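Example record for the data management plan.
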Amino acid sequence: MRITFLVALITFVADQILKWVVVVGLNLREILMIEVWPPYFTLSMAWNQGVNFGLFADESPLLRWVLILLPVVVTIWVWRWVRREGGRPLMQASAGLLIGGALGNAIDRLVWGAVADFLNVSCCGFTNPWAFNIADIAIFVGAFGLILTAGGKTPRDDRASMG
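Corresponding structural encoding:
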């Protein structure tokens, strides 16, 4: 579980440092947009009060606290599940990405009242209307990694133990 902890810590710290550098240091919260490599990469400020793509966005204090507590519950569940599975290194790293990203976004909601999204990538004539952050990438990659690495345990053969 050392791998899970280290990957979660690195993911969480990298996410929070980048958010502070961009949102506060570059003052993106007020200037709203910085063209880094137009039209492919921009920093575009978006405060997400909902879940993915702003779904269920609401200024309700109850929803805010649910969206702060939910990642904590998911973190505990994923940690216990990977530990119980005796997770292989890739499974542990995937869990660390998911946990670090989930806690990074939960801290945003606690500190700012919403998740700070600002990375925007467009290509090939398609203008992407959505922004995301490092935590979002980590959650996606971590969840996908857990799907790919879950299972793999050999089921116990009850017939062999009966003989």
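Summary line stored alongside the record: The radius of gyration is 19 Å.
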